[in-house]
Design goal:
240 residues
Length: 240
Amino acid sequence: MLKEWMEVLSDEEKSEDEGSVSSENSSSETSDSDEEMEQINLGKTHLSSDTFEFYFAEKLKKVKEKKAAKELKEVKVFEKIVEVEKIVEVEKIVEITKPCLTCLESCKQCIEKDERFSELEKLKEQLLFDVKNLKKSYDVLNRHVNSLEKTSSEREKALKMMNATMMTKQKEINLYIEECAKWKKELDSEAAENERIRRLLRSYTSCDYIIDRIYPTVKGFEAFKGEETKSKKKKKTDKK
């Protein structure tokens, strides 16, 4: 029974080797067939139906035949593998095996693996916790950034409005400055004219003062002198 089981295992290994070789061959054939199908599809898109039939009909037929042969081969290999697995399962069921005593003993490697697994589980939980905290922090940061962007956009709009208002006010101020300069110039000319008139008036008043005050006094003094000389002459004549 053991010999038969070993023969079945050797047959199974051979079939697996054949399957691996066939899988490698099938992979190369698959890549070739895929390239051929790409060429066929490319020709089908760029060529007319008659030209496509003329150039690619034989190639398309060969590709279909290869595909059918490959599928048939895979079915045969699969059936063979299933048959071998059934035989091995039957042999395992029939054979009575004794329990392995060493498997019941504690293994150092298994203990180390368990410890390592528990450490990895703890690390995974810590990483999940950190990821959750990171997601919460990211959400808070995202909300804060959105609020800052909104505030920045509103501030930018306000600055644009203020700049427009400032330009309008600046134009009005420039207009007022020009008007003030114009009125100042007119006031300066008016002040000069007023000064000229004031000086003329002053000269006129001085002439009037002379005419009204000084001239009559001089006339009176001259008249007094004349009367005095007349009285002296009269006295002299009386003495004679």
